[in-house]
Amino acid sequence: MTVTAQREVLADGRERWRLPAGQEALARELLALGALGLGGFVEGGEEEGGGSWLIREAATRTLSEALERWDRRAGGDGDGDGGGDGAWVEVVTSLAGVARRLAAAEARGLFPGSLRPDEVVCSPSQEGAPWLRADALISTSLGAPSCEGGGTSEGGGGQLRREWLTPSAAEGRPADASDNRWLLGLLLYRGLAGHGPFAGMGLRAAIEQLERGVPPLPEAVAAGLPPGLHSALLRMLDADPQRRPASAEALVELLEGALAGEVARADPREHVDPKTALRERRARVQAAANPPAPTRTSTSQAPTCASTSPAPTRASKPGASRPAAPRRRWSATRLSGALVLVALGIAGGLGLLEWAAPPVDSSTATASKPPPGVEVGARGPLDAAHTSPEDCAGCHPRQSAEWKRSVMGHSAKSPLFQALEILIEEQVGRSDDCPGGAGILRGADSRTACRDPNTGIAITGAGGALWCANCHTPRENLGASLPAWDGLGAGAGAQASRRPLRDLQPASTTEGIDCGFCHQVHGPVEIGGARLGGYEGNPSWISTATGRTFFMRPEDRVGAAGIANSGYQLDPGELLAVDLLEPSAADDGRTDPLAALDRERVPGGIHRRPSDDARAYLQSSRFCGACHDVRLFGSDAVGTPTRGEHFRRLRNAYSEWAAWAADERRAGRTPADCQDCHMSSFPGICVEGEASAPVPGETDPSALRRGCPPGTHFESRRPGERPLTRVAAGSGERRELSTHYFSGVDIPLTPEFDARYVDQPELDAAGIPLGGRQRRDLLLGRSFRFELDGAAARIVGRRLELPIELENTGAGHKIPAGFSQEREFWVHLKVSDASGRILYEVGRVDRGDEDLRDKLFVRVNVDDRLRDGAGRPLGLFGADVVDGPDRPQWRALDGNPRSEHQQPAPTRFRGRGLINLQNGFLRCVQCIGFIDGEGRCQAANAAQAATRAGRYADGGFDDDTGLCSSNLGGDEALFETYFPVGSLDASRGVVKGPDAIIDVRSAPPGVAMRWIYELELPADVRGPITVEARLLFRAFPPFLIRAFADYEALQAARGLRPSGALVTREMLDELEVVELAAVSQTLAP
Q1: End-to-end alpha-carbon separation of the chain, Å?
Q2: Rounded distance between C-alpha atoms, residue 146 and residue 603, angstroms
Q3: Contact call for residues 963 and 642 (beta carbons, < 8 A)
Q4: Are residues 537 and 661 in the same domain?
Q5: Same domain (yes/no): 808, 941
Q6: CATH code at 243?
Q7: Which three-class secondary structure state does DSSP give residue 17?
Q8: Which CATH number goes with the domain that contains 1017?
């Protein structure tokens, strides 16, 4: 659809734009961009007769004038001193303001066009604050949809000038955001030296100079700069793109650091101290959550274009500055917070207009032409080294910007993933015979593999080589880089093989689940492909006791290949031109080159369109099932006897979805796929209008209200509803397309996750919040029906019976899903009388780093120096635990009568204590106290009674069969522990995975769960009684973070963490207690 837009130039140089009726949202988006310093729109409103109007500031003074003044001051000959002491301040101040505008564009996935001096305008209404004309962005939206950028010129023409040569122009590629960062470096160089680094060179010489790196500034100029600024400039213009600042935000830090007397660190992508990074991140999050009041006049709030005199302006005619009778005026400041067009790229949200007529100058009636196009070279096809989100952002800025805000982009950087993976490798199987740890989930070399002392079978890799890396860092399978684990040697090479993944893998793998991975997936792995030398993920594990191989994909037997444990098949020919492929990369040599060559390329030939098979697979839940069912080596004490499965279900989201989907089909309904919920507008968007006030006595979905910015409210969207946009910046057709936020309930703990992406209340063009915190809140807010059933509450004598009910209404899997043993969903309940006296309270935590009180951790051991006679660590990641005041005391009224750990899971309970949907881990034990008449183990003395585990010792567990050998029977032989890998308690038991995994506590979809509290009331209670209930969530339990942080600190002190501790105690400050819903009711006495 196209829209006619009219533009007229007012007498004072400003522009008045008119859009027809029905395009009010687009006008608001343009105005919101103006508030960010992009496009120059500063006022707007609705016409009385319909349609909307916008005012664009006059471009009366640009950065070109400042460049000329800086040239004159420096002498322009390269021999000056840059204008004397302190002259650099004006240059850096001006360009820091420009960098902020570039950062705003990058944060929203927008490319404003190549940075030219005459495209940077010094605002006359905002004390000289710079804004970018962004003519390329706006002209694209007005009928020139093109994935191009091109060279730049000082005078604004389309022809490339060598002085503003960029890497893309030198290579014949379209310009992108990285070129603007380069151009800012050229502007800084010229501002300081009075000439650019390519001055006096021919084009060929300039290209050769660019490839070598720019020369340093003249000595006289460099001597007058503050420490670090010169080196920062050279990094901005480094010949190696990997050494340049990776974002405009990094340029802001460099330039503002210079002004503050402290240049920012060399490269924001290189490792920094996590404590420092987390402190910086928290400060930025707090600043984003509590921005200063906006002002249009304060020079402290807006960066300025440095100037020595005000620019002249023409007098405007009376009444010419705006339409005569607007029906409603819009505020750019408010729109920037609630209706900002972001993350949809040039054509994604703005590509709705085209020029219908030339603009009219209201004072001269002379037509002015829209900005000219820019000539660019053709871009070559993508190759294996250029499939990162940054490479794709030039044509797909919306998808790239959304991905940056996703957890998928941080799967490799996750501190807990990294820490858990290396803990397993360096401690499981460790002994005097295997002093470096067995590396049970890493690749093996028969010469350096640790072996079972009884059988000689290799332990290294037995659980599944690269079992963790295959899903968290899947690019490893496009170019193997990890060395085989050496648990035997003490030399430098052996020690290097035992480093964390972060210190071993190249930068190409650190982006986790990115464009290059997903769009090179062809389908599921072939069953039995590993026997032919191909990739099959981790379909099996090997028993080191018997040598037997146990398979972990029962779905293979019914033809559903590739479910669980990285069961995806990569084929670079799905994305890249086959003639560019390395022979070894093309599907293990089995790809048919002729068939691949027939695949159609996208316009411009940059990459291929996916095959029908690949497209169908990427759109199916089976693709998600390749990594979102996670199955651990070893049999399960509960699952193996009941289901015949010789593996442990650590994560079960796909299987839970498959069961729900089958039920939906039986009921005659079409089930939603994973992508319908996590790559769409579901659970809803934010639309204009204030949210409804909570109704007393009814449940308040507080997370939904909190997830939308002020002035907007939540509006539901069904699974599968997608925003209408373009697949690429140069696409003409708009259609429903998937989002790439991959919204979930976790906020990455890694310091590398940009603080702007955590708490960002602005909306994209579809009404979806940008901030991870806001999207999480909307998802959580739609997850449950939560009710306090006051009508069914009753007081019998001095006993209060109080029902609480919740139902998973927002997911096609259980909640919590994923790593459900670490996610906490619980109820905070408070009962008080008329005097305010608290009669009962459970589930209260006052801080994000405070543990739930159902259990108390007396001691957690993370020191591996306590060993048994074979040199195996004892008590590592074991805990001495005692009952807490909120200990659950619930009687199940339904479920499996034989076992509380087996299906069907109970859904109705009576009792008291904490309600927590978090799953857990079980360990096979035997009783060392005495067994009572009901078959329960009791403490024989005070020492055994001191902790929960005191009366137990490890039982005999058979990993092959799942048999627990114990003097206890049934559930009594299984003891709950709290770490995914660990010991029985703080001083006993070897380090190993759980013997069984609890999966019956989480809430299944569409099943009402009901708890009836039975509470004794005091004799002197005074009514009425007030009951307050809150449903709460936390992504990680504090004890887990605390234990890993202390372990990592020890390992770092021993020199085993080259780039520092993977988890730190500062990460505890990142934990949030999130309220989903709350309800309060008053009961008669």
Answers
A1: 64
A2: 11
A3: no
A4: yes
A5: no
A6: 1.10.510.10
A7: strand
A8: 2.60.40
pLDDT digits (tens, 9 = 90+) for 781-826: 999 999 999 889 998 888 999 999 999 999 999 999 988 999 999 9
**pLDDT tens digits, one per residue of 1002-1034:** 999 999 999 999 999 999 998 899 999 999 999
Task: For residues 228 and 103, state if they share a domain.
Answer: yes
Neighbours of 282 (CB within 10 A): 16
Residue 1038's φ and ψ, nearest 5 degrees, are -60, -35
Question: Do residue 690 and residue 834 come from a single domain?
Answer: no
Q: How far is the C-alpha of 624 from the C-alpha of 513, rounded, in Å?
A: 12
3-state helix, strand, coil in the chain (%, to 5): 30, 20, 50
DSSP string of 362-412, one letter each residue: TTT--B-PPPP----PPPPPP-TT--SHHHHTTT-HHHHHHHHTSSGGGTT
**pTM of the prediction?**
0.76
Domain assignment present for 30: yes
What is the rounded CA–CA span in Å between residue 673 and residue 660? 11
> What per-residue confidence (pLDDT) applies to 837?
96
Q: Domain limits at 572? A: 519-671
Q: Which residues of 554-583 are buried (b: 16+ CB within 10 A; e: fewer)?
A: bbbeeebbbbbbbbbbbbbbbbbbbeebee
Q: Which of 797, 811, 920 is nearest to 855 (CA)?
A: 920
In a domain, 760, yes or no: yes
> Quick check: is 366 in a domain?
no
User: Minimal CA–CA distance to 93: which of 402, 403, 303?
Assistant: 303
Q: Answer yes or no: is 914 within a domain.
A: no
Distances (CA, A) of 1024 to 694, 697, 1081: 22, 14, 10
Domain boundary among 263, 289, 315: 289
The pLDDT tens digits of the residues spanning 965-989 come to 999 999 999 999 999 999 999 999 9
Residue type, 349: G
Q: How many helices (H) and strands (E) would you count in the chain?
A: 29, 39
- Helices 229-236 and 177-193: crossing angle in degrees, nearest 10, is 140
- Is residue 839 located within the same domain as residue 850? no
Residues 753 and 796 in one domain: no
- Distance of alpha carbon 772 from alpha carbon 289, whole angstroms: 13
Q: Render pLDDT for 726-774 as a digit per residue (tens, 0 to 9).
A: 898 777 788 999 999 999 999 999 888 888 889 988 898 899 999 999 9
Number of domains in the chain: 7
**In this prediction, what percent of the chain has a pLDDT beyond 70?**
83
Exposure string of 506-523, with b = 16+ CB inside 10 Å and e = fewer, is eebbbbbbbbbbbbbbbb
Domain boundary among 972, 998, 1024: 998
Q: Of 566, 515, 569, whose CA–CA distance to 740 is shortest?
A: 515
Mark whether 622 and 559 lie in a shared domain. Answer: yes
* pLDDT: which is higher, 475 or 378: 475
CB 109, CB 342: distance < 8 Å:
yes
The neighbouring-strand residues paired with 957 are 964
Backbone dihedral angles phi then psi of residue 185, each to the nearest 5 degrees:
-65, -40
pLDDT of residue 141: 55
Write the pLDDT tens digit of every residue in 1-56.
455 678 888 888 899 988 888 777 778 888 888 888 888 888 988 888 788 898 99
Question: Do residues 721 and 836 share a domain?
Answer: no
